[in-house]
Amino acid sequence: MTADDLARPQMIRPRQALELTEGECWQLLKSASLGRVVFTHHAMPAIRPVNHLVDGQTIIIRSHLGAAIVSRAGAGAGDGTVVCYEADDLDATRHTGWSVIVTGLARLVREPAAIERYERALEPWIAGQMDHVISIEPRFISGIRLVGWCS
Question: What gap in Å lies between CA 135 and CA 44, rounded to an integer?
Fold first, then answer.
């Protein structure tokens, strides 16, 4: 292999994007432990990596008091705030995998028994006091699976 070969980008055939069913989306979300929550902060989009768990058809995350999403999720009379949540498992070498996107309302969980249950079940990956539990109730869920072309 020459230096020219290394500098030349490898040609990989484009992948086929297959739409996932709602059931497939939920199964894949349950299989993942890490995702990204997208919300508005100072009128601009903000993205934070978080770990999650799926309870029925609700996504649960934990956050700390100073996090921008906590103030948004707890604002108003329980209306919550619109967020997107995305989780995926992508192979950068093969260019295959899946991605699921959920759009819904994020709200602070306020019921003490639910808070206690989620705090036991969801250990944050980030050090420090994660003293708020946030539920994301989906309004829309969609996903794709990237697969190689069949010959």
Answer: 22
